[in-house]
Amino acid sequence: MARKFNILLSSDFEQAWRYNIDLVCESLDAAGNRTDFQTASIHLAEVGDNLSAPPADWRKETKLEITTPECESVRILVYVVAHTMIKDRGVGSVKPFDITLKVTADGEKIYCKPHPVDQRGGAAIGIEL
């Protein structure tokens, strides 16, 4: 049954400004063929820029959202890439932070889960619903 999906990525990590984040969504038909492709991103700097502070237009709460046309299922990919490395280089002293993915289909919550992001290595997250 075809449904409209809403994908919401969020994080309240105060230093999320150090990362470029891409949210990618493929809408699929019943046979698994792509019928639509959408992206949303936060791109604050080039990898390696090593900003000393957040950009002036940085909004503290990180959110990205995609709403699909009607489809049978979705394939969601999230890429989190550091452009500014953390100052603390101590092994084990830097804890991962969470990015939460919440997915609704025709208004019904079908997925809501925090995903850990390594502060040095970033993350690549993929789910299919």
Describe this structure in words.
- There is one protein chain.
- With 129 residues, the protein is mostly beta strands.
- A hairpin with a 2-residue loop joins strand 6 and strand 7 (108-117).
- It has strands at 5-11, 19-28, 34-42, 62-67, 73-82, 97-105, 108-117, 123-128.
- It is elongated and about 50 Å long.
- The mean pLDDT is 92.
- The strands form two sheets. The protein has a four-stranded antiparallel beta sheet, with no helix packed on it. Strands 3-2-5-8 form a four-stranded antiparallel beta sheet, with no helix packed on it.
- It has no helices and eight strands.
- The chain has one domain.
Query: C-alpha Rg, in Å?
Result: 16 Å
The largest sheet has its strands arranged as: 4-1-6-7
Q: Which percent range fits the helix content?
A: under 10%
Task: Kindly estimate the percentage of residues that lie in beta strands according to DSSP.
Answer: over 45%
The total strand number stands at: 8
> Major sheet, described briefly?
4 strands, antiparallel
Task: Looking at this protein, list some descriptive labels.
129 residues, mainly beta, four-stranded antiparallel β-sheet, elongated
Helices and strands in order, then pairings?
Elements: E1 5-11, E2 19-28, E3 34-42, E4 62-67, E5 73-82, E6 97-105, E7 108-117, E8 123-128
Antiparallel strand pairs: 1-4, 1-6, 2-3, 2-5, 5-8, 6-7
